[in-house]
């Protein structure tokens, strides 16, 4: 199968997805969770099923909470409530009102984070993300240092960096759109999902690059880079697809059967897994051939 023959189509398709993701992030932005913006996250479960999102919102609006974000948990009588930071006195007052108007409930969790702490977490998250990107690129360049012709070892690192951006931008754009459409928040789980995606993506890419390195070292004619890359991709394609498909099946199962609180986290990893498998085969390897030394 001649993978490289249609590389311009692969680049165009990825370009469209990345453009859509960037537009989504520019237009909609992200709905920051309390981890990054500060606030209160309250998880409660009512004994009866008479409570509803609308009833909870009505109580909170009367207490001057504008547009409170409330979503169901794993059952219809379980709720996650996101609010601005509140005092313990206000916490107890709202609890009494919920109990009086909607019946007895169990408080499963209550967490309140100040805006200063949220800002610090956000800054640390960005720093960690950039450090991971840099570390992965340097590691790949070092790992392939013995293969400097017809492609510089540093280009393996740069191509890996490009594919990582490809693989995290698309899930990030997806989250941005979901935040506008469904009110999904970007919290610490969002960062964890991106790091998981990066780990899977770089693993898949290195498998292909390692086969390219092996075939280059065994080849007597290194000038035929396109042919060597194409053969290497075909030799590893079945493994990449099978590995990705196994993970996709697991993620789909978790999404359909797992807890409500894991759904969006799982969906992001699912999107990243698919884009990572796609980029390792159809983006990373063709990019190497564009960087061939003359």
From TrEMBL:
SUPFAM superfamilies: Multidrug efflux transporter AcrB transmembrane domain (SSF82866). It is a multi-pass membrane protein. Keywords: Cell inner membrane, Cell membrane, Membrane, Protein transport, Translocation, Transmembrane, Transmembrane helix, Transport. InterPro entries: SecD/SecF_arch_bac, SecD/SecF_bac, SecD/SecF_CS, SecD_SecF_C, SecF_bac, SSD. GO terms for cellular component: plasma membrane. Residues 125-290 form the SSD domain. GO terms for biological process: intracellular protein transmembrane transport; protein targeting; protein transport by the Sec complex. PROSITE patterns: SSD. Part of the Sec protein translocase complex. Interacts with the SecYEG preprotein conducting channel. SecDF uses the proton motive force (PMF) to complete protein translocation after the ATP-dependent function of SecA. NCBIfam families: transloc_SecF. This is Protein-export membrane protein SecF. It comes from Candidatus Harrisonbacteria bacterium RIFCSPHIGHO2_02_FULL_42_16. The lineage of its organism: Bacteria, Candidatus Harrisoniibacteriota.
């Amino acid at each position: 199968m001649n993978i490289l023959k249609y590389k311009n189509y692969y680049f165009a398709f990825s370009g469209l997805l990345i453009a859509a993701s960037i537009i989504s992030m520019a237009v909609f932005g992200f709905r920051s969770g309390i981890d990054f913006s500060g606030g209160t996250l309250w998880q409660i479960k009512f004994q009866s099923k008479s409570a509803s999102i609308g009833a909870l919102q009505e109580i909170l609006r009367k207490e001057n909470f504008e547009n409170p974000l409330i979503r169901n948990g794993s059952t219809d009588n379980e709720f996650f409530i996101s609010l601005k930071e509140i005092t313990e006195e206000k916490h107890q007052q709202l609890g009494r009102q919920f109990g009086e108007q909607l019946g007895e409930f169990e408080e499963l969790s209550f967490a309140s984070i100040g805006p200063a702490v949220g800002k610090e977490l956000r800054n640390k998250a960005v720093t960690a993300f950039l450090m991971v990107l840099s570390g992965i690129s340097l590691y790949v360049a070092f790992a392939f240092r013995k293969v400097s012709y017809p492609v510089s070892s540093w280009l393996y690192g740069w191509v890996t960096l490009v594919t990582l951006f490809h693989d995290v931008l698309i899930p990030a754009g997806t989250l941005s759109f979901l935040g506008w459409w469904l009110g999904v928040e970007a919290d610490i789980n969002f960062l964890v999902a991106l790091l998981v995606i990066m780990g899977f993506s770089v693993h898949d890419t290195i498998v292909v690059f390692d086969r390219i390195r092996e075939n280059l070292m065994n080849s007597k004619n290194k000038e035929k880079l396109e042919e060597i890359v194409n053969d290497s991709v075909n030799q590893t394609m079945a493994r990449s697809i099978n590995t990705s498909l196994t993970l996709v099946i697991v993620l789909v199962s978790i999404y359909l059967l797992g807890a409500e609180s894991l759904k969006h986290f799982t969906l992001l990893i699912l999107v990243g897994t698919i884009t990572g498998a796609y980029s390792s085969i159809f983006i990373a390897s063709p990019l190497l051939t564009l960087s061939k030394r003359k």
